[in-house]
Design goal:
The protein is of the alpha+beta class. It contains twelve helices and twelve strands. The chain has two domains: about 350 residues, Beta-lactamase; about 60 residues, no CATH class. The strands form three sheets. A six-stranded mixed sheet has the order 1-3-2-12-11-10, with helices on both faces. The chain has a three-stranded antiparallel sheet with strand order 4-6-5. The chain starts with a strand and ends with a helix.
Length: about 400
């Protein structure tokens, strides 16, 4: 695959696009960035940051979900699974009631309409490396206790747990496990030799990630939760993935299947925006943000990899670059995308990380309840920390 390394994004996307990135970096909203573009059948890359190369790996976060969804389609095409199969069919000890008419299906998981909570209960939501110790045994124990019926009127609820379960079920259906399935069905056929799941192995070209405030972040490791966000990759490998996606812009995963947030729709893994031709997904970990999008009409694509946790900013840039490929103007950077708040929040998280198991039960609550509960606990912890700090300072002054 031939890749042209650009000196400026303006050369492909038009005036103002280079400034979107350079301005954000100058204002310390971004660290290093790799941008990949597919336009008119050609691949382009623009690299920002000292030492960033085509071979530099970034954590992809939830962009991994698109790979998991594509695996579902590949296995369904071969008849190994069906989209309406109950997910319980591919677990160790399925309950009979989880195989009935109200059972959560593979398609429910892929479209975030299963009703499962966002996070697996037991994951330390404030932990610095939250998914590392969540195993298949814990997953099986949870679903055996909860059951896998979706309820009568499921609605869109974005769920890392759902994609964890989907990838686990697909690996079981194929008889090889998710990691090997991903390698065999997508990575090897596309020649994506610089992409891997973060499952404890050494990755020498993985760049250092940063929290939104700029504090260096811990690299995330995964076990059974890898299908929801465990991939690490390079901009070059993501361009190979984009080209493969553009070979068939009418692929089954792109077809709208359910309503999503803010009036949008969702296919199998892919979010569908305000126009019917765009397919996209973003991702974030503790130290990285990512974006991938496909314009079916223009037959173009964008990938953005950043080693800073700034998903709102990267989402904005991704949408702007999509617009530029369609002939619109780039616009500018209007605010700090939460950096000022992060300067307070990130140090508090570092201090609170040892207490993260106390927050784990919150993940099992419904989304509308988990947010205020988590916020209340976080506020209480922050006030306690402030009180202790004030007491210590008073003691020091008294001496």
């Amino acid at each position: 695959m031939a890749v042209t390394v650009l000196e400026s994004l303006d050369d492909v996307l038009g005036p103002g696009t280079e400034a979107l990135v350079t301005t954000a970096r100058r204002r310390r909203l971004l660290n290093d960035v790799a941008v990949g573009l597919v336009r008119d059948g050609r691949c382009f890359v623009r690299l920002f940051g000292k030492g960033i190369r085509l071979e530099s790996r970034f954590e992809l976060g939830s962009v991994t979900k698109t790979y998991t969804a594509e695996l579902l389609v590949l296995l369904a095409t071969r008849g190994l699974v069906k989209l309406n199969d109950p997910v319980a069919k591919y677990l160790r000890n399925p309950r009979l009631e989880d195989l009935g008419a109200d059972a959560i299906t593979l398609e429910d998981l892929a479209t975030h309409t299963s009703g499962l909570p966002r996070l697996p209960p037991g994951v330390p939501v404030l932990g610095l490396d939250p998914y590392a110790r969540y195993t298949s045994d814990k997953l099986e124990h949870y679903v055996a206790r909860r059951g896998l019926n979706r309820g009568r009127h499921p609605t869109f609820l974005y769920s890392n747990l759902g994609y964890t379960l989907l990838g686990y079920a697909l690996g079981n259906a194929a008889g090889v496990g998710y990691r090997e399935l991903l390698r065999r069905e997508i990575l090897d056929p596309l020649g994506m030799s610089e992409t891997a799941l973060a499952m404890g192995q050494n990755q020498p070209t993985l760049v250092r990630g940063h929290m939104q405030s700029g504090i260096p972040a811990v690299h995330w490791q995964f076990d059974v939760c890898a299908p929801c966000g465990g991939m690490c990759s390079t901009v070059g490998d993501q361009l190979k993935y984009l080209q493969w996606l553009l070979e068939d812009t009418d692929r089954e995963s792109f077809e709208p299947r359910a309503d999503a947030m803010e009036g949008g729709r969702i296919g199998l893994g892919w979010l569908i925006g305000n126009t019917s031709e765009m397919r996209r997904h973003n991702g974030a970990t503790a130290g990285f943000s990512s974006w991938i999008s496909v314009d079916r009409k223009q037959r173009s694509g964008v990938v953005i990899l950043s080693n800073r946790q700034v998903p709102a900013l990267v989402n904005t840039m991704g949408a702007r670059f999509d617009g530029c490929l369609a002939g619109r103007e780039a616009g500018g950077i209007g605010w700090d995308y939460g950096r000022a708040m992060a300067l307070v929040r990130d140090p508090v998280q570092l201090v609170a990380a040892p207490l993260s198991p106390l927050f784990s039960p919150v993940a099992a609550l419904p989304f509308w309840l988990s947010v205020p509960v988590a916020g209340g606990i976080a506020y209480g912890a922050e006030r306690l920390f402030a009180l202790l700090s004030s007491t210590l300072r008073s003691g020091w002054h008294a001496q």
